[in-house]
């Protein structure tokens, strides 16, 4: 599964902001985590393409795929489904394709973050320990960095070889 790191980073930032806004008003950290994930989110944290793939069968009446998902994700897609239906009834969206409507639906405000308070706790822990970098990706460890550099070098060699092969005249 591919990850959209821009959405992941935005999700982490917005979740931490929600936590910071309720942390001082809570009796315990656990209570703050639970309140933060129930705060309204600025958007739905899913790409339009992925949302359209899940919502297309739902529009046709097939809810089997969604019903097999974990509860948080299931609630998110049902909420997004309601938002798509609501938008499709507006004059500006009548006759538009699903992907067009979904692009607007995913950037509309969500009623909550649709994640567990344990996930928020894990994100805060990773940020504190430095295992999550500022772009929202897992920080590279030295061994991983060396392997990544080898991979970059090998890719450059292959690209150079391909460029050399392409520049040769065909006989």
Give a written overview of the molecule.
The protein is an all-alpha fold. It contains 8 helices and no strands. It has helices spanning 5-23, 29-37, 48-59, 64-67, 71-88, 98-106, 117-129, 142-167. The longest helix is centred in the C-terminal third of the chain and has 26 residues, at 142-167. The protein is flat, with a radius of gyration of 22 Å.
Mean pLDDT: 85
| Fraction of residues in helix | 55-70%
Count up the helices.
8
The poorly predicted ranges are none
- Strand residue percentage: under 5%
What's the quaternary structure here?
single chain
Structure class: mainly alpha
Cα gyration radius (Å) = 22 Å
From the spread of the alpha carbons, the general shape counts as flat
Give a short synopsis of this structure.
This protein is an all-alpha fold. It contains 8 helices and no strands. Helix content is 64%, strand content 0%.
Q: Which labels suit this protein?
A:
171 residues; mainly alpha; 64% helix; flat
Topology:
Elements: H1 5-23, H2 29-37, H3 48-59, H4 64-67, H5 71-88, H6 98-106, H7 117-129, H8 142-167
């Amino acid at each position: 599964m591919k990850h959209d790191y821009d959405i992941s980073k935005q999700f982490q930032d917005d979740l931490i902001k929600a936590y910071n806004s309720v942390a001082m008003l809570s009796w315990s950290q656990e209570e703050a985590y639970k309140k933060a994930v129930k705060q309204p989110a600025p958007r739905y944290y899913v790409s339009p393409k992925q949302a359209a793939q899940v919502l297309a069968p739902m529009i046709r009446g097939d809810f089997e795929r969604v019903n097999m998902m974990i509860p948080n994700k299931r609630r998110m897609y049902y909420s997004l489904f309601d938002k798509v239906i609501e938008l499709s009834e507006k004059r500006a969206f009548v006759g538009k394709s699903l992907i067009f409507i979904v692009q607007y639906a995913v950037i509309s405000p969500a009623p909550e973050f649709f994640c567990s308070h344990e996930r928020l706790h894990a994100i805060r822990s990773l940020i504190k320990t430095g295992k999550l970098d500022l772009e929202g990706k897992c920080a590279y460890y030295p061994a991983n960095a060396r392997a990544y550099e080898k991979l970059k070098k090998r890719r450059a060699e292959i690209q150079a070889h391909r460029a050399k092969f392409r520049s040769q005249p065909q006989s």
